[in-house]
Amino acid sequence: MRAAQITRLDGPGAVEVNEIAAPTPGRGQLLIDVAAAGVTFPEVLLSRGLYQLKPELPFVPGSEVAGLVAEAPAGSGYAVGDRVAAFPGFGGFAEQVAVDPAFVFPLPDALTLEQGAALPMNYLTCHFALRTRGQLQAGENVLVHGAAGGIGTAAIQLAKAWGARVIGVVSGPDRVDVAREAGADEVVLADGFLASVKDLTGGRGVDVVVDPVGGDRFTDSLRSLGALGRLLVIGFTAGSIPQVKVNRLLLGNISVMGVGWGAYWMGAGGPGFLRQQWDELVPLMESGAIDPPIGVVRDLDEVGAAIADLEERRASGKILLRLSH
After folding, report:
1. 10 Å Cβ neighbour count for 243?
2. Confidence band of 238 (pLDDT split at 50, 70, 90)
3. Are 39 and 61 in contact (CB under 8 A)?
4. pLDDT tens for residues 148-171?
5. β pairing state of 318-322 and 30-38
6. DSSP string, 146-187
7. Above 70 in pLDDT, residue 242?
8. Same structural domain for residues 56 and 146?
9. pTM for the complete prediction?
10. Which residues touch 287 (CB under 8 Å, ≥6 apart)?
11. Number of domains in the chain
12. Rg (CA), the chain
């Protein structure tokens, strides 16, 4: 089968498409014919050897997919031909992938397979961020950085579905429409966002900040929080990891919360936590509240360019690889 492989750690341009052996499902695993795969920030880091997990070279990246079940063991809850999304962690940038049933999710008919591939990483991460860590309540104000990206649009849609008012922050005017179409009530530019937030909230500040960006924005994100506000640290796409002076937390009665979705379900939550999350989101998929904006869709041969699109922050919406036509 055809698959993308990371054979050396020289960045997105070094990812190769090769013919490799199809996977043999392990005990209890499903085999999925992959229709589309989502491109996520860990693939950027993996291509340079900067991710916390360091698989032996060569390996097939790709953490999230959607497609049709090709083989299903008895008792798995799935049958051949079922439409599914899945979170294999690795191996998704290939025509087939073997996945444990705990990481496979039934895809509602309301969504296409391409939309399904855009869901697992971003929407389950944002579910964990807003529900489990942030304890979001209806009527609260939420500030979302990177509001035109995959995490940003997912956070906007979930926060809106749960009754929040959302202010999106984008890096340039060309990204405003993407954030608005995702459901943001207001969209402001990153340059000077603190003043905009204070104006939009009558000086009170927001209750929750969703931050997948980090970098220079962090301090002003803290300043944008109102009393009992929570800043959710999801990632550092800006490249630098900010530091916090804890006296700010004391004086403002605010909190900074780490959002380690993977660390949680690999530990205290257990793998079954993912299916619990998915089942809670299914009604939102069926109602249209979850409608992942698709940005760039590239063929497998363009995998290096797809990862580079994400690394260089060129794309708005979710970046996908198309594995079948």
Report:
1. 8
2. low
3. no
4. 988 999 999 999 999 999 999 999
5. antiparallel
6. STTSHHHHHHHHHHHHTT-EEEEEESSGGGHHHHHHHT-SEE
7. yes
8. no
9. 0.94
10. none
11. 2
12. 19
**pLDDT recorded at residue 216:** 83
Tokens coding 20: 């490799």
Q: Is the pLDDT of residue 246 over 80?
A: yes
Same domain, 51 and 138: no
* Token pair for 82: 């079922």
Cα–Cα distance measured from residue 197 to residue 205, given in angstroms and rounded to the nearest whole number: 7
**Strand 255-258 with 225-233, pairing:** parallel
The b-or-e profile of 244-279 (16+ CB within 10 A means b, else e) is eeeeeeeebebebbebbbbebbeeebeeebbbebbe
Residue (of 184, 185, 179, 161) closest to 280 by Cα position? 161
Q: Collapse the DSSP code of 60 into the 3-class scheme (helix H, G, I; strand E, B; otherwise coil) and give the result.
A: coil
**CATH code, 7:** 3.90.180.10
| Domain shared by 115 and 126, yes or no | no
Query: Does residue 163 share a domain with residue 235?
Result: yes
Same domain, 45 and 153: no
Place of tokens 């004086």: 251
In the structure encoding, which two tokens stand for residue 191, read together? 């340059």
